[in-house]
Amino acid sequence: MALMIPPVKLKWLEHLNSSWITEDSESIATREGVSVLYSKLLANKEAVLLPQQVLCLKGPQLPDFERESLSSDEQEHYLDALLSSQLALAKMVCSDSPFAAALRKRVLVLQRIFYALSNKYHDKGKVKQQQHSPENNSGSADLHSVSERPRSSTDALIEMGVRTGLSLLFALLRQSWMMPPPPSPGGGPGGNINLCNDVIHTAIDVVSSLPPLSLANESKIPPMGLDCLAQVTTFLKGVTMQNSGADILGRRLASELLLGLASQRGSLRYLLEWIEMALAASAVVSAMEENKGLQNQEGLIGYDCFMNILMQMRRSLGSSSDRSQWREPTRTSDGLCSLYEAALCLFEEVCRMASDYSRTCVSPDSMQTGEAPVVSETCEVYVWGSNSSHQLVEGTQEKILQPKLAVSFADAQTIEAGQYCTFVISSDGSVRACGKGSYGRLGLGDSNNQSTLKKLTFEPHRAIKKVSSSKGSDGHTLAFTTEGEVFSWGDGDYGKLGHGNSSTQKYPKLIQGPLQGKVGCSLLCIHFGNAVYVYLLVRLPAFIKHEDVCCYGQVVVCVSAGYRHSAAVSEDGELYTWGEGDFGRLGHGDSNSRNIPTLVKDISNVGEVSCGSSHTIALSKDGRTVWSFGGGDNGKLGHGDTNRVYKPKVVEALQGMFIRKVCAGSQSSLALTSTGQVYAWGCGACLGCGSSEATALRPKLIEELATTRVVDISIGDSHCLVLSHDNEVYAWGNNSMGQCGQGNSTGPITKPKKVVGLDGVAIQQISAGTSHSLAWTALPRDRQVVAWHRPYCVDLEESTFSHLRSFLERYCDGINSEDPPLPFPSSREHHNFLKLCLRLLSNHLALALAGGVATSILGRQARPLRNLLFRLMDSSVPDEIQEAVIETLSVGATMLLPPLRERMELLHSLLPQGPDRWESLSKGQRMQLDIILTSLQDHTHVASLLGYSSPADGPEVLCSGPGFTASPDPTYVATAGHPDTHLAEILMKTLLRNLGFYTDQAFGELEKNSDKLQQGMSSSDSSQPAHLHQLLCSLQKQLLAYCHINSVTENSSSVALLHKHLQLLLPHATDIFSRSAALIKESSWNGSIREKLQDVIYVSAAGSMLCQIINSLLLLPVSVARPLLSQLLDLLPPLDRLNRLLPAASPLEDQELQWPLHGTSDFAEPGSGMSLPQPAFSWVWLVDLERTVALLVGRCLGGMLQGAPTSLEEQDTAYWLKTPLFSNGLEVDITQLGRERTDTEL
Asked: Measured in whole angstroms, how far is the alpha carbon of residue 537 from the centre of its chain?
């Protein structure tokens, strides 16, 4: 009896797909590498070892041939039995050898990686709903709404009068300036000029008296007012020109008024326009001074006027910098300052403000009191809906039908609307509550209703980061602290408070156990021998070593209170649930309740959770996976049915999207995508589809919001709120208490409608309770918020990038000249200005990416900006400028890059077509090539290149104008069910050729130094770019994954691509092995050459990359590999010659034959007692490659010998084919054939 390797049961876990995608599949080339990955399979229980099968090798019972005479049939029977026994023994020995064990591990690991890739990135025939880009429709929608606005005859008359009056005023002012001044008694300026300047001076006084940012909210300014502002701005710009006819004072006053209007309008665009005007005017003045050598009062601005505007901007946004570092212009004795210095000072201030804001967006948690400036000192909170229990802190208990400013909530940072109650978190982490107090849900120590906000007490004292309160049942609340601890209070039925019982808790109580956090008390686990001792310690005793301690506390980053259950997510991505367990809502595989937080073992890498009435929704950290479980009635789980689900199950309809947030309500669920779209499923008005009776078993796009970029969602019991990027709030669902903010309580509201009364309010956060709603202006800390328009410093629109491009193009000329361009007095000032331009550009690119803004926001600026930045890279610019360019490119590469197809063409033109062209690439071309290769390594782009998914930038490319049509790129249209692989074929061919250039160069260096004791080549000169290798490997991996998962046939376009690629790669590998064998044979005495050769081969196309391909071909049908048989046969001889010259082949052959004596199949691997010596060990992978190639060749030949199954015609004529006539054919004698024919006739 002998034991075989036990069979394995495979069960891929969906939540581990992301982890497997990141694994390096090329590491399977080595036995130690594949052992690590195989151990991961076993540790995650995705591969479960089954009980070992016992193989009986006793053999057949044979007779005594000397004493017994056997018939021919008996002899044939015993012979067959003996051969079968020997074949079984041979199969057992061969399949359980060290090589076979490693091969089996390689195949299993590749299967797992291929499954993860296909599941994540391949469409698999699913029809996804078209995702519209909201930016492209917003402009036309606004114009359409404006055109529909009814205009009365009175409005028309007023507009005509205003336009006529402005035109007349401008004409009179110009005429007055152009006319020669009449003589005056004092000899001063004429009266006409004084009159003109007085008019502008009066306008300056009016603008200065306005509160800051009075003209910033253009939604509140009628179109006629905006048109007037545009006319005034155009007139004033003309006045600042030298040929305008205005005197020096008039031009100065016009500049001051322009700046005042720009600061009041608050948009970066207008400030950049003023800076552009100021620099142009200063350049003219500088040129005049150089030509005439005169000093005059040109190019100046009032110092006090400028500084007042600057200080007003600083006060409005605050300042995080030391005032001593602020730049201020030099004041003249006349109380003036240089227009040039004012422009630079303003530009520096704008850049500083943008940088400060960018930092707060990158790290919202760093935004503490006094650190990050806010536009207003207090938070504005608007409330509406039910006030039956004073949950809105208003004197009357009547429902509020439209948003009302609530002064009591003024210092709120975060607000949570629960079941007839409200919780307010202040910036210092304190919590106050109001509303219904039954079951102690307010945490104030009693069950009384609270009509005003009252502060909660937390013991021990903690700063609270977020609160979640249930929207139904009897009310309970969860809160987690800044340290990641969790408190709970309220109704304790079903154990939903997590304290190990069902008691009501009227004060906040810290949840012990796994959610206690990694601060304060912690569980101490000490191992002594086989015993484990657990202690609850505050401080580690001196006699205990730190390495013996395991901290079981978890830092919580998200909590959710459902109707009868609760959930929390740890920093490590673990999901804990507790409370009522019926319908499987806890996700533990049963209906049992838990009264303490219990880990959900079937998922990991969780980032967020939301609990509904009887179901739970979880979202992965990367936003690519949504799970749901619990009660499936009305389709609220989104799986296409109404079944209960007891363990987390992936919502397939959301695969392929990036989800930012999920919400679970009573009978419906919501999901927010990274592109700002909202999907809903379940039943009722919350679907937002126009019917209160509708049901959606799978997530469905809410069409009414398709052209709105949504940044946040919230769901109450049966109504929904969303917040758009431009601070508008939409609501729909149950409106019986006015909770939808429409000014009435009729309903339900079956489609999203804009909440009335919030126009012009910069709403940043929303919260929906059971029957009331809140919206407020404080910036959130739990999500990244990027304002498209931030006063003075941020404007995420094309005009900003256009101005910055104009600055760079205009002032980059002559960057290395001794004489900088006007108006810059020195190269230092010139370079500083360019650095500020690049810094502001970099900040805007970073903010656009952080806000999820599509690349279409750059409009027509992407290509010229990209070309400009790479031209700067190629120019001999100062180091500080080049560093700023590199930083800008690294930050905004994904936005500056062209669409996928154009990127492919650009890459093809940049990649060298010969080995000598690498040296000819400029620095800018090299960086551009590096950025493009890096961007293409994204698995989504690779899948798009291969035609397995829609292009990642498809919607953005297609939606480049207001009249776009959602027609697919013909490049990616699959024909006859097969994906188009043309682009991938070109790219793979180019990448392989370029890798070959590097390999040839490395071999040339080795052959040149083969007769030397010390190799003199520089590794940096011959090392290939990692991006080339990684991109080609990624393309191959996804191609093989698609072929494996989809069981492709030899007629598939993917198989055709695989054949074309391998018909180039396999001969290239054959050449590499031949050159290697010749090199080793010539320099067998030089050990350093052999060591260097190992590195060259392994990173070449014939190394780990080829190992992955050959092992993967074993997973595909034999018909796929058979056309490659000739190339595989050509590969074997040089590979065999090379291995025989290397030290690993002979010891491995001996070990393969001796392994049964040692009783283990892994004895040749590291860590076993019989591991190979180092020189031989480093070449084991190459011997394994040869054996795998030989096995693949054997499979191809075996398939050819076996032949195809018999056809129907052969089966029907089987009798005649077996007759002597047909079975012997023409090889028999004529006489014998005639005799057989006679016998047949008789």
From this structure: 40
Which positions ≥6 away from 357 have C-beta within 8 Å? Answer: 787, 790, 793, 794, 843, 847
Domain ranges of the chain: 1-55+95-116, 210-290+297-316+339-361, 381-519+551-776, 796-896, 979-1007+1026-1151+1177-1201
Size of the chain, expressed as the number of residues it contains:
1242
Strand partners, 599: 576
130 pLDDT above the threshold of 80: no
> Are the C-beta atoms of 140 and 38 separated by less than 8 Å?
no
Asked if the model's pLDDT at residue 950 lies above 80, the reply is no
Q: Which residues of 1018-1027 are buried (b: 16+ CB within 10 A; e: fewer)?
A: eeeebebbeb
CB-neighbour burial class of residue 716 (10 A; exposed 0-12, middle 13-18, buried 19+): buried
For tokens 């779209």, what's the residue? 677
- The rounded distance, in Å, linking the Cα atoms of 799 and 842 is 15
* Mean pLDDT in residue range 64-68: 68
Cis peptide before 955 (omega within 30 of 0): no
Higher model confidence: residue 150 or residue 742? Answer: 742
Whether the CA torsion 287, 290, 291, 295 is positive or negative: it is positive
Strand partners, 300: 338
The alpha carbon torsion through 485, 486, 487, 488 (nearest 10 deg) reads -170
Phi, psi of 721 (to 5 degrees): -125, 145
CB 444, CB 478: distance < 8 Å: no
Contacts of 321 (CB under 8 A, 6+ apart): 352, 356
> Which residues does residue 1129 pair with via DSSP β-bridges, in sequence order?
none
Confidence of residue 489 (pLDDT cuts 50, 70, 90): very high
Tens digit of pLDDT for each residue in 532-546?
344 433 334 443 343
User: What are the backbone angles phi and psi of residue 301, rounded to the nearest 5°?
Assistant: -145, 155
Q: What pLDDT does residue 1127 have? A: 92
- CA quadruple 624, 630, 636, 640: dihedral positive or negative? positive
650 with 627: CB under 8 angstroms?
A: yes
Q: Determine if the peptide bond prior to 780 is cis (ω within 30°).
A: no
3-state secondary structure of 558: strand
**CB neighbours (10 Å) of residue 741?**
30
Q: Mapping DSSP to helix (H, G, I), strand (E, B) and coil, where does residue 732 land?
A: strand
Asked if pLDDT for residue 729 goes beyond 80, the answer is yes
Split at pLDDT 50, 70, 90, the class of 878 is confident
Query: 683 to each of 49, 615, 641, how far by Cα in Å?
Result: 44, 14, 12
- At 140-178, the pLDDT tens digits run 333 333 334 455 556 666 666 666 666 666 666 666 666
Q: Which residue has the tokens 């020096």?
A: 248
Closest CA to 733 of 691, 705, 703, 698: 691
Are 636 and 669 contacting, i.e. CB atoms less than 8 angstroms apart?
A: yes
- C-alpha 721/C-alpha 733 separation (Å) is 9
Q: What 3 state SS string does 439-466 have?
A: HHCCCCCCCCCEEEEEECCCCCCCCEEE
Long-range contacts of 55-63 (CB under 8 A, 24+ apart): 55/1, 55/2, 55/3, 55/4, 55/88, 55/92, 56/1, 57/1, 57/2, 57/85, 57/88, 57/89, 57/92, 59/85, 60/84, 60/85
- Summarised one tens digit per residue, pLDDT across range 1156-1202 is 555 544 434 433 334 667 777 889 999 999 999 999 998 888 766 65
**For residue 1178, how many other CB atoms are within 10 A of its CB?**
19
Rg (CA), the chain: 38
| Among the listed residues 402, 1167, 1077, the one whose alpha carbon sits nearest the alpha carbon of residue 757 | 402
Name residue 432's amino acid.
Answer: R
* CA-closest candidate to residue 663, choices 722, 747, 739: 722
| pLDDT, mean of residues 994-1014 | 76
CATH 2.130.10.30 fits domain 381-519+551-776: yes
